[in-house]
Amino acid sequence: MQAVDRGLSWLLRVTVTGALIIGVVIPPMLLRLINELSHTNDWFGWRIALVILYFAAFLVVIGLASVVTRHYTGEQRWRPMKREDLGIVLTGYLAIIVCESVFEIINRLVYHQTQTQNNAAIKSLMIGSPWAFWLMAFSAVFLTPIMEEMVFRGVLTNLFFKQEWLKILLSGLVFGSLHSSSTIPSFLIYVGMGLILASVYRLTGKLQDSILLHFLINFGAMSIIVYSLLT
């Protein structure tokens, strides 16, 4: 799959990508603010405004990333998924489970960590207030996969490099770097996940494939987190 338009300068491409990545980290920052304001008496109006802003951040980033991706790929519509796409998605899912399991075992044996710093940060946000709990539970499953795939796969792999392996490597490294990690194995969990997601997208050329895979991963992870916090 080749991009058809290289009209933007390298500096402008970096600027656009950087702005989108900043947009990706805005929702968690808003959740922290919601948690801080939840301890004050008069904050109902702020709560509504922040919730609206929270969802708006997702929509803006998704919309802008979609425009950039369509501009560079020349594809104005998503191609329909086929049966072989589901096979690739399931293979990617199994690969991520294996990758995650291996590095989690190493992380536990070497660093004595039972969970990644990223999952700990998510739990910390969710226990801050009921609003943050349900906003995170919903968005992590239904919005984050779309937003992150549009940015880290749709934009990153189409705006930079010509070699497929460099596109995939860049996507995996940036994706892994934006997930909180305190050890090398935990960092490699997210890098590996990013590499597999990027490989699925570059193999099929369909963002909905990597979005579906990301949805499956986040649904499983969030189900475990929600269960652990409610029991």
UniProtKB/TrEMBL annotation:
Q: Does the keyword Membrane apply?
A: yes
What parts of the sequence cross the membrane?
A: 12-31, 43-65, 86-111, 131-152, 164-181, 211-230
User: Per the database record, which ranges form the CAAX prenyl protease 2/Lysostaphin resistance protein A-like domain?
Assistant: 131-219
The family database entries (Pfam families) matched by this protein are listed as: Rce1-like (PF02517)
Choose any GO biological process term that the UniProt entry carries and state it. proteolysis
Q: Which GO terms describe its molecular function?
A: endopeptidase activity
> Which superkingdom heads the taxonomic lineage of this protein's source?
Bacteria
Q: Does the keyword Mitochondrion apply?
A: no
What are the alphabetically sorted keywords of the record? Hydrolase, Membrane, Protease, Transmembrane, Transmembrane helix
Q: Report the family membership.
A: Belongs to the UPF0177 family.
Protein name according to UniProt: Membrane-bound protease, caax family
